[in-house]
Amino acid sequence: MVKVTFKPYEELIVHEHQRFALDDMIRLRCTGMQVGSISPNFQWSDGLVMWRETFPQNELMTQENLDGRVHWLWVGYSEMSEYRDRLTFKETSVTIPVIDVRNNPVYSAAARWLKEQKGK
């Protein structure tokens, strides 16, 4: 019998964060993309839509992950109270898929933390 072990991350380390108006975040994500294309996705949890960038995976980041820590180099976020499965940049018809990650403990914790940063 194969043993299965679940070892969730214990810590999320956010190195930079930036709050945006939703329209500005959509525009930034879609700038330079081909008309009518599909952009990389956003993540949604607890009333926030997020766009995060991670560090390149290397030996140090792999060790950090194995030690229970995940690093986000940068996260942009905006309020979006209701989940929508896609957003569209009307000027170029670029679609941004939005993934509902509210059941993911890392994203849920990130959304709660980011809401506390408002005005800081």
Describe the structure.
This protein is an alpha/beta fold and 120 residues long. It has one domain. Helices cover 24% and strands 33% of the residues. It has helices spanning 22-30, 59-66, 105-116, and strands at 11-14, 17-19, 42-45, 48-54, 69-79, 86-89, 94-100. Strands 1, 2, 3, 4, 5, 6 and 7 form a seven-stranded mixed beta sheet that branches. Strand 6 (86-89) and strand 7 form a beta hairpin. It is globular and about 50 Å long. The mean pLDDT is 95.
Which properties best describe this structure?
120 residues, alpha/beta, seven-stranded mixed beta sheet
Describe how the helices and strands are arranged.
Layout: E1 11-14, E2 17-19, H1 22-30, E3 42-45, E4 48-54, H2 59-66, E5 69-79, E6 86-89, E7 94-100, H3 105-116
Parallel strand pairs: 1-5, 2-5, 3-7
Antiparallel strand pairs: 3-4, 4-5, 6-7
